[in-house]
Design brief:
Length: 234
């Protein structure tokens, strides 16, 4: 079981995400990665085999920053531990995703997406998810709706964090079978697989239920349940 951390804020989130990953190291992992949307609306990403320290050094060697981002420690289930199999995974240059869990029906989805013209750059089950979100974004301008459509197609377990260069100001998350919590800050919001990762920035949490989808902005958190009914939080 590995880890996810994500955030959307009015300050750079790189260090918060890296500290979150360090706090999740106890869960075990083989590689780590981070992607942020920078101020020019470009997704910048770094992935490394090994420890969070390697990732930190990789970013320090060619620094980039962003106020919206996602980060991941991977415990390989599909595809060997390698940089190309590490998360975040991308579809093109403008959409990035982190995933904990296993997509049981990924082989069938992969074949379908290949026929639709998607090129796969990893051996992971996760890569089908990011391409499916990309495909759904051809039908809706809402990143949240594209994620909602995507999870209808997934069998298995997942916690997801999604960012898009075409949807700045949003971080979308979903959970089914893998833990995910939302950290509520002041003018900033976060996601993590364990609240421990976020105690550095907040002590207020929203615990997602099975099948929930969440849309985070700096100001709001909207959550929908598995029946697409909006969940009201205090
Ligand atoms: N199944 C995904 C992979 O192999 C995610 C594994 C994880 O939860 O770290 O990349």
């Amino acid at each position: 079981m590995c880890g996810i951390v994500g955030g959307i804020a009015q300050r750079n989130v790189n260090e918060i995400l890296l500290e979150g990953l360090r706090r999740l190291e106890y869960r075990g992992y083989d590689s780590a990665g981070l992607a942020v949307l920078n101020d020019a609306n470009v997704i910048e990403r770094c992935r490394r085999m090994g420890k969070v320290k390697e990732l930190e050094d990789g970013i320090a060697a060619a620094p980039f920053f962003g106020k919206t981002g996602i980060a991941h420690t991977r415990w390989a289930t599909h595809g060997k531990p390698s940089e190309e199999n590490s998360h975040p995974h991308m579809s093109g240059e403008r959409l990035a995703i982190v995933h904990n869990g296993i997509i049981e029906n990924y082989e069938e989805l992969r074949e379908e997406l290949k026929v639709a013209g998607y090129e796969f750059l990893s051996q992971t089950d996760t890569e089908v998810v990011v391409h499916l979100v990309h495909q759904n974004l051809q039908k809706t301008s809402s990143l949240t709706d594209a994620v909602k459509e995507t999870i209808k197609r997934l069998d298995g377990a997942y916690a997801l964090g999604v960012i898009s260069a075409d949807h700045p100001g949003k971080l979308v998350a979903a959970r089914h079978g893998s833990p995910l919590v939302i950290g509520v800050g002041s003018g900033e919001h976060f996601i993590a697989s364990d609240q421990l990762a976020l105690l550095q920035v907040t002590d207020r949490f929203i615990f997602l239920n099975e099948g929930d989808v969440a849309e985070l902005t700096t100001d709001h958190v909207h959550v929908w349940d598995k029946d697409n009914a909006e969940v009201v939080h205090d």
